[in-house]
Amino acid sequence: MTASRKKKRWEDQSLLEINRREARTSFYGDSAPKISLNGEWKFQYLDAPELSPEGFEKADTDQEWDTIDVPSVWQMRGYDKMHYTDVLYLFPINPPFVPTENPTGIYKRKIRLDRDWLRQDTILKFHGVDSAFDVWVNGCHAGYSKVSRLPSEFDITELVREGENDITVRVYKWSDGTWLEDQDMWWLSGIYRDVELINEPKNAILDCRVDATLDSAYQNGILTADICLKNYQGTVNWRLEYRGHEISKSSVYSKNRTVHIEERVEEVKTWTAETPRLYMLTVSTEEHEIKVRVGFRKIEIKDGNIRVNNQVILLNGVNHHDFNPREGRCVTYEQIRSDIILMKRYNMNAVRCSHYPSNEYFYDLCDEFGLYVIDEADLECHGFEWVENYNWITDDPGWQMAYVDRNVRMVQRDRNHPSVIMWSMGNESGFGNNFKRAAQEIRALDSTRLIHYEGDSDAEVTDVYSTMYTRIQKLQKIGEMGTDNKKPHIMCEYGHAMGNGPGGLKAYQNLFRRYKRLQGGFLWEWYDHGVYTEKNGKKFYRYGGDFGDFPSNKNFCIDGLLMPDRSPSPALFEYSQVIAPVEVTRTEGSIREFQIKNYFDFLSLSVVEIDWFIEEEGTVIQSGIMDHLSAKPHNEEWVEIPFHSFRAKANTDYYLKVCVCLKEDVNYASKGHIISTVQFPLEITNTELSERETGEELTFKEDSHLLTIENRNISVKFHMVYGKMVSLSKDGKDYLTDGPQMTVYRATIDNDMYKKEDWMNRYFIQKSSEQTEYVNVKSKEDKALVTIGKYFGCLNQSWGYHCVYEYTVYPSGQVKVNLQAQRVQKGKLEPEFLPRIGIFMKGNKELQKTKWYGLGPGESYPDSKSASSMGIYDSTVDDLQTRYLYPQENGHRENVKWFGLYADQDGLLCKMEKPLGWNLSNYSDESLEIAQHPYEIEEAEDVLIHLDYLHSGLGSNSCGEEQQEKYKVKLQNFSMTFTLQVVDKDHFLTKARERYWN
Ligand code: GAL
Ligand code: MG
Question: Which residues form a coiled coil (predicted)?
């Protein structure tokens, strides 16, 4: 005998709701009184819903209950456990069923309502509950709902009474909805968005759907509004205002609960992300008044391009998840507001709600500050891909209404926001009939926006062709129309900001700007999803696996432009500079003439000014402002920067720095805010050679294999067996505690994850050594010459280098180091490329301060240095580091011409013959490699100094493109020269500028 499995309420994909109200647009303003139900609730956590205590839904339960704050996710309040997976469901794939062990939270609270309140209706609104829930009011079942990232409203008028009322909510962690909520993020549950009671008038304005478009000349606005009344016959008044000025108004009599308004607005002020102009529509009846902000704009596809108000736009966007390091997916208005302001300040003009609708206020803020939004349905069933049955439920008619519900409710809620330009039907869920149906339903509701879904890879039903992490070559082909479909293209995700990186963003931007079909992309992603932790006096952030969660995708969730403490990562500066809407380039062959290209889509350059500076290695010697720019969008103009000729100091570099700044205050930044900074070398050289200082004659002393060459200015020791300079000191104090030694290794970065195995377990690049071939010591005129031949190689490798280190010790106290490295291959195998080629040496640990001349102030890498400029900068060794949550190579600076390392007065000055890459750190690369969290990085006894002839780029290969060929360091011959000297730190600059005859 077989009995069929009993379907539980939360395992029924065809049951979309019980008593939930039809979704409706969120209003910007509403006269209906509200009571927030945020705050403390009674809470009971259970291992399965069936274990609920008898009569829990009744008004009084005498059990001892915990308390929990609403909104919150219960995993961040000590219940259940934290678990992070990218793709995997945490249980067998057997939809719609979910585990019998199904963590459940029962929430209870009381609310007093007075007689006045009861004259009107009572609506209970949940803005977000993860993943499904039942509600009881005063012991009676009031409804059931799901879709974690959308609101649910219940009309509980019949259930409430004067005085105390009891509200009970039972939340299920797993439900059939979970099959559609498999986004790459922490699994979190509970009432995690606001809860409120609305005192809705009997004759309320229930809905007001606004379309605000433009006429065919894009001149005049056409406003239509469909107002839906709850129960009303009578007069509806409406008024349209612009910045407090009345534009029009009227009254309409309604007989059948609906009112249709149509109004033409002459010479309308249009909305775009660059000009977020909003009108205010007020609709009222005798009892109720609501407000909707209106932005007039028209989205179309014309001649193969996405257009806003007839202009082809370029999206410079970012993917945004709701996240907070202490609260998980529970965020606040203030946090989101500052996120959006930051996006604007860093030149972004678009945001994708990956991968679910955000809080209602998110869209208000995007309307107000100006961001184009891809609003995405709460829909992802990625785990099915990994069992090679991606369309299992996506093509199953039994799931169709679930797909439709998630999309339709999003549209019904967010359709009034001018910022929303595309509806995205979800993410990573294969493609099938359920999406086709969802597209139809969306179009039936709203034909004024475009439909997006990356999973529709042939753009069969979508309006845009969307891909993610597309490699440069393929993207170029798409740009050249080399695909079957010809729809406009966007990259819904690219540039994976995991750990150190992404690099190579400029190559993408160049393609976006070159090919009209390519309309930009959205960087992955805004925020690192690290969880704030204090443990044993240590403060740090945990990621997947740190909670004993298995399986887990570990730090794959640490992939944002913002660190969890909200500090910007270097990638944010880089991205901002790469996408900056104004580009300054120097006319070839000219020193003063510049082209200013306007990449704004709507603003002319009259909104910016140019602040220019002539810099003498970072010191400003002339400056000026040019504020008469006027180029129209997508146009350019040429300017002459009127600097005066000047006398160049000896051996000194000059640069022209150009900052493009805002001319007026805007709502996200003040006048003077820098949009873009570029620097141009002036190539004015005044080379002066001088006589190298002299000094006492050098003495030579050899003792137990140690050769000391010294006078009063310097003392250097060479180990005659190891063939190495082992120290550099003066007046008995060591400055270098170990001399140069070749290396090809860096602590691998997340973007090296697919190289790491080869590099470290096959080519053993971290296991290198040098063998001494010979040591020659000569004294030549008054200087000492130590030439050391070495063989450099890695464990069990046939490739390596013949190195000749030539040390010239001068009586002045200078030591010139020249390394000539010649590659060798006696077998066949070698790495395709190396993280770096160069040397490292060690400095005295007491020397913790530094000054350098090179790119700065932040870190820079060959394929990520747009946001750095040449200058003289100060820092400490520790402050040079970027504390990536998952420790990895960081803090590198490119193009360094000299650096000083000091404690108080005297320091070590190292100047390069040709600029080199540079790192300083208080730990070794190996300890950086091993550590899983910053506090685990083991301190070294010395300061580690790297000088790189070449350092490989970062790329975005943790998810996406590798470093471009030109940023891969190939095995190649190289040579580098630098001079070491102990100098008073106040003389670093003068000494660094000296050039010698001899
Ligand atoms: C994409 C996905 C994102 C995220 C990203 C990697 O495939 O859409 O949700 O997983 O990869 O971080
Ligand atoms: Mg996914």
Answer: none
Q: Confirm or reject: Cβ of 428 under 6 Å from ligand 1.
A: yes
- Please write the tens of the pLDDT for every residue from 952-981: 999 999 999 999 999 999 999 999 999 999
The confidence score (pLDDT) of residue 62 equals: 62
Ligand 1 touching residue 710 (CB < 6 A): no
Bridge partners (DSSP) of residue 821 are 803, 974
Class of domain 310-577: alpha beta
pLDDT confidence of 731, banded at 50, 70, 90? very high
Domain regions of the chain by residue span: 33-200, 205-297, 310-577, 580-682, 699-993
**Both structure tokens of 42:** 């009674």
CATH 3.40.50.300 fits 699-993, yes or no: no
pLDDT digits (tens, 9 = 90+) for 505-563: 999 999 999 999 999 999 999 999 999 999 999 999 999 999 999 999 999 999 999 99
Asked if 750 contacts 958 with a C-beta cutoff of 8 angstroms, the reply is yes
Q: Quote the CA–CA distance of 362 and 373 in Å, as a whole number.
A: 10
Ligand 1 pocket residue status of 86, Cβ below 6 Å: yes
Spacing, Cα 183 to ligand 2 middle (Å): 5
Q: Is the CB of 493 under 6 A from ligand 1?
A: yes
Ligand nearest to the CA of 522: 1
| pTM for the structure as a whole | 0.97
Q: Which of 524, 527, 495 is nearest to 509 (CA)?
A: 495
Query: Is 699-993 the same fold as 310-577?
Result: no
DSSP for 124-160? EEES-EESEEEEEETTEEEEEEE-TTS-EEEE-TTT-
- Residues annotated as catalytic are 428, 493
Measured in Å, residue 85 CA sits from the centre of ligand 2 at: 9
From 85, 86, 318, 526, mutation site for ligand 1 pocket: most ligand atoms within 8 A of C-beta: 86
Tell me the C-alpha distance between 482 and 490, whole Å. 15
